[in-house]
Amino acid sequence: MFCKIKTKRPRSAEVAFEEANRSIDPVDGKNSGSVDDAFLKRGKGDTRQVKQTRDKIKQYQKKIEQSLEKERLLAKELLKNGKKDRALLLLRKKKYQEQVLTRADGQLENLERMVHDLEFAQVEMKVVDGLKTGNTALKQLHALLSIDEIEKVMDETREGIEKQTEIDEVLTSTFAIEEEIDESEIEAELDALMEADINEKAPEISKDVLLPDVPKELPEEEKSRTKEKIQEPIAVMA
């Protein structure tokens, strides 16, 4: 619920202000029963009246133009019949009507300008009324929020962020490894694992299988071949 903003105004102006803003909706800006609405309605009525006067002048101009054409043809016919005086009188009347038509053109131009001014003034009144509605709603919203309250919210938000940062730092330091890791111990453990893996993959030799004895001396044929190979380089050197 919006609170009312009290400002010092004369009593009559205050009454007019309350009447103009009695039904303002700060959301959609509608203003029913406003004094400005009465001005707008009156302006629309004035514009409609000016347009009607303009249309009447246009009809009068059209009537005069038709009459001028008829009188021109009639004056031409009178001259053919030798009635010069009557033709001259008719031409004088035609000249006067032409002057009236010229004045009607000037009046019509003024009325057209007046119609445009009235329509644009109605648009300006709507703009001003919209600005008044927006300003009233903005003042009511500002009355709900004070600078002290906004600063308090910002301080609490800042404190919450700082507190969360401290919590994150504590949780991170709790799980940190304090002692340095000895790389030589890790390598030794890795070598042991590799050696165990090789031993597991190597085929096991059964203890029950009897293997042949390894001969202690070479056979006779091997001895003679070895002796010949030793003697050949000696013969070449000799």
From TrEMBL:
Keywords (A to Z) from UniProt: Endosome, Membrane, Protein transport, Transport
Family: Belongs to the SNF7 family.
Any single GO CC term annotated in Swiss-Prot or TrEMBL for this entry: multivesicular body
Protein name per its UniProtKB record: Charged multivesicular body protein 6
InterPro entries with a match to the protein in the record: Snf7_fam
Highest taxon of source: Eukaryota
Pfam families listed in its UniProt record: Snf7 (PF03357)
